[in-house]
Amino acid sequence: MVKHTDHTVTVLDKLTYAGNRASLAGLPEDRVRLVVGDIADAGAVDPLVAEADAVVHYAAESHNDNSLHDPRPFLDTNIIGTYTLLEAARRHQVRFHHISTDEVYGDLELDDPARFTEHTPYNPSSPYSSTKAGSDLLVRAWVRSFGVRATISNCSNNYGPYQHVEKFIPRQITNVIRGIRPKLYGTGENVRDWIHADDHSSAVLTILDKGEIGQTYLIGADGEKDNKTVVESILELMGQPTDAYDLVTDRPGHDLRYAIDSTKLRTELGWTPTYGDFDSGLAATIEWYRQNEAWWAPAKDGVEAFYASKGQ
Ligand code: TDX
User: Fold this and answer.
1) Average pLDDT of each block of 10 consecutive residues along the chain (312 residues)?
2) Is the C-beta atom of 192 inside 6 A of ligand 1?
């Protein structure tokens, strides 16, 4: 992978409940700058895009359970925010990469051998995934109608350090650290296709370097696992009995299975993931949460109170 040790990065972040200044600690201060602001605020966005060589658009409301509770922020950030960034990229003719999700394709049956490809029709299920699908379509339209030099990537479920404790894997790890039993929605049979966050980042950098304008690339690392297996691995790696979890109220409209075929990215751009072994990536992630309680503890009680109010 090409490493750009001479580039500088400006992070535009609204610092909602999901943002955390401490996530940037330790990065070189002369090359990384945090600007607190909203991607839906054209006044904040325009001067930053004007001075950029490229915009990599990671910003989103991203949690399905929150979108079922209150969809509005998902429309504001994911739709209007993407529109605002695209208009700035158009004005200043700046290269644009849009980060999206495999959830735009809906879900697959548990026993279906098929995986998502770049040709799978869009069929999102939740308020979250429908706003991400809408944002992808805006990017495609700005490429075709206005000549914006954009690419899109749709990635599978990420895991690794610095992930908010609302998400499945960090929630269960921090539950075990706190002496709370892990919580599996429904029967725990739903399947997700896990990729380490570092592999997601290397794929995005590859697309930024070598991707063809107007193209979509699916990112995945062949990491399909059902949720029950993931919880059992966490319990085993943390020295607990593998059946020490609770089955709780299912998520409404819960997507059954996601699975990514990343052949296009691998063959056309030569990308390969580096975290081949899920259990060793998971063990390192558990160790990170053990060592960094000060990073996640302030959010933990509020997240658990939210889930408890829904029987989860
Ligand atoms: O406590 C839990 N118990 C449980 O069984 C939680 C929080 C989740 N789950 C299940 C639901 C899903 O089947 O685990 C799976 C993963 O759940 P999430 O971490 O909420 O992720 P998911 O809904 O699959 O979406 C994630 O991956 C795709 C991200 O949140 C999205 O932003 C991304 O687009």
Assistant:
1) 81 98 95 98 98 98 97 98 99 98 98 96 98 98 98 98 98 98 98 98 97 98 98 98 98 98 98 94 98 98 97 96
2) yes
In one-letter notation, the amino acid at residue 111 is D
171 lines ligand 1 (CB under 6 A): yes
**Any idea which residues carry the catalytic annotation?**
102-103, 128
**Ligand 1, atom nearest to 185 Cα:** 5
Rounded distance from Cα 168 to ligand 1 centre (Å): 5
Ligand 1 atom nearest residue 255's Cα: 13
Q: Is 168 in the pocket of ligand 1 (CB under 6 A)?
A: yes
Domain annotation for the chain: domains and CATH numbers = 9-164+194-224+258-277 (3.40.50.720)
Atom of ligand 1 nearest to the CA of 307: 1
pTM: 0.97
Tokens of 24: 């940037």
